[in-house]
Structure formats: C-alpha cells, structure tokens
Amino acid sequence: MLGEVDLDTAAEFERQLLATLHTAEPTIVIDLSELGFLGVAGLEVLDDARAWSKHTHEMYLVTGTQGVDHVIAASGMSACFDTFANLDDALREVAKRHGHG
C-alpha cells in the first residue's frame, strides 16, 4: 500500500487484502512501510483480515514508519501481529520460523 489508509481508501485496502488472502500462501507479509497515514478504518481492515484468516494464514506486518508503528502499538494491535520495521527483517523471521534460515 502507498499513501494513506483512511475512511476514503479503506474499502480498496480491504479489497486488495482479501484478494491476497484468497490467493496467497499460508504466510503473508503485509508491507505498510510506504504509508504516510494509517487511520482507524485501516486498523479495522487489518483486524478483520486477522480474524478471517487466523486459522489459515500467518500474517506479519511491516510498519516501516514511526507513525504507522505508533498507531499499531497504540491500538493494541501489536499484540495481534508480529511487526517489523522493514521488509528484510520480516522475511528473515518468516524464513527462520519455517526452517529456511
């Protein structure tokens, strides 16, 4: 995702995330590092996706920016997701957990 996820863009974010969940491998890394803003509507989409996929997918978040990281932490969602500052760290952790690193 690029830009912002707010009330105006949350539906598109949800559409993209659901499409990914339906076609993706069991492990998904959601890269939010290009977001300048993550609003409540975006948090709700992430929480819904987590609930929909909790028995079928492992989800990891790349928060990237301090603003997105703060929103995830302040909402309490950092307890629901493994979060990483960058994509490389997330991919290394996925590989380690799946015996590839």
Automatic annotation (TrEMBL):
Q: Which residues form a coiled coil?
A: none
Q: Where is the STAS domain?
A: 1-94
Q: Which Gene3D superfamilies match?
A: STAS domain
Q: Kindly give the InterPro entries that the UniProt entry links to this protein.
A: STAS_dom, STAS_dom_sf
Q: Which Pfam families match?
A: STAS
Q: What is this protein called?
A: STAS domain-containing protein
